[in-house]
């Protein structure tokens, strides 16, 4: 056998090879597999033996006891009994999608990683998984929580996992605190609740005793923690990483994902209702968008800086509770990720995907960030538990798409097994023998660590440079619009109102006093405290003159079109057909999705006698699941539904959530029934007016009519 042939045989199969072999195994029909109706495949056991009856357990007579002998039933039950694997200890609730990354502005001056430094236009397949942190696998999507934003790049030089969040900072500075942080936010161990929320004593007890978390807490209490959809949120690599170029020169880098769709969040009261109306709101949104060919895209940006910048920056770049304002180090866009393919099988792909922060490729390196270093241990370790053995990299979704050659062997579920005799190194096979000697390390192209001297005494001590816990928390707060600040005060008030212990509530306000006195006062009033508590002693006095950073606000960075958003049109008998059709086409022409809601799911007869089918019955399609709504019905129908609670809620919620509302004059009867007629403002659009539909859709680009909300809620 020639050596090329041997090498080919050694090649461990990647995803494509696996898919092919799967197709072969599952090839239709077969000698013993005659198709029952000439159509479907024959049902078989896991061993491939055809099954004659899948409904009745073998028994002694039709009413007799079931026989243990039934190997087919036993195999079926056995497999079912073992269907579950442990859910992720955090980020259990998630949704994965395939896509590709296109390199648009290569950066060979900073890195020799081919994925970032290759040819302009180079495409790399990716798999992205978005998640919440605290809730279990079945928890609702709209929890107030951080969202995971993990991307696996199947690069030519191995898998690169960028395991980030939709928030650029983290709660803690050192990984040793992670179990405590997560224990505190997860359900209390004695009672097993509350699920998927931070609004409870344990969480606020922990963070109020951990001042370093204050910056992240500000983000978590902002609208960032209730995104409208995964499609409308940013992603961040959080840590400072290193890039290494071909000459071995190192630079620091922070990674950013910028959604081309723009940023958008919902309002808390809306989030609570979405959780009831559609707990799968985020995953459904992603599935529907991709299914409809509206592929979401994010630009990948880098903030690159050198040792000198790091030395002079106000904070330590190794501290994951700090960010570098984009106004200080601009984000350079280097490529675009497009998500264009839904999974074929949720378990095989979304559930089994295993991200590891340690997965980097030549041309990159870690920094001494103590949170990152701890993560590098944790992710590999957790896969062993979750996926059951060291061969989780053989699972197609985790297998690199480049060749894999090494001497690792055996273990549970080994799927990619090298051939040949040499399973150790050094060896002298191949020298004058037919045997394949196996792979060898390559100093030129292999991964090399950045050279750094580490001659320090062993200590357990946090660096003094990590001690400022409030300055950037304050910077975040002052960078928000007034409406966003109001939402933050409301969120803190809501959460602390769920905290039973008064000392914890006060301690938390004692931190807010370092961040912004107005905010502290608002929350103090919100929870009904008679007077402000004392400030919590600060490890270091905050810097109060940090400049505002507009990049930190969602509303300052919103979209400029209604594209990708969803309009709910509530129709009923006699709805003006011209208006409905004009509105539908105006929305679709800007790339928005339209859902028709009606009193009955069958639909409703329009004014021209045509019957329009509905996507939702009004009870199942409340206005909270849409970005804007219109109510179009005939005179008589509007009179009928004026007293109908779901119809009233449709309008009153849309109003309360500052949504743009389209209507025709008969619909005003519903507005009148809930006392809204006299409150109709510039966020309402008469669709029967000239160019009514176009004007309405144009206004919807702003997403919300915030003027309606700028009064503080009690
Ligand atoms: Fe983590 C999962 C993001 C700190 C330990 N983490 C996980 C996921 C994301 C993040 C997005 C889900 C990946 C997926 O979709 O499968 N984690 C972060 C970020 C952090 C962070 C942005 C701070 C910057 N994590 C962190 C620390 C530790 C962990 C400090 C432990 C010391 N994280 C884990 C884990 C998980 C995980 C236990 C659970 C499931 C998994 O890894 O695969 O290992």
UniProtKB/TrEMBL annotation:
SUPFAM superfamilies: Class I glutamine amidotransferase-like, Heme-dependent catalase-like. This is Catalase. Residues 44-433 form the Catalase core domain. The keyword Iron applies. Heme binds at residues 88, 129, 178, 375, 379, 386. Its cofactor is heme. The active site is at residues 91, 165. Its EC number is 1.11.1.6. One of its GO terms (cellular component) is cytosol. Coiled coil: none annotated. One of its GO terms (biological process) is response to oxidative stress. Keywords: Heme, Hydrogen peroxide, Iron, Metal-binding, Oxidoreductase, Peroxidase. SMART domains: Catalase. Belongs to the catalase family. HPII subfamily. CDD domains: GATase1_catalase. It comes from Aurantiacibacter atlanticus. The keyword Iron applies. Decomposes hydrogen peroxide into water and oxygen; serves to protect cells from the toxic effects of hydrogen peroxide.
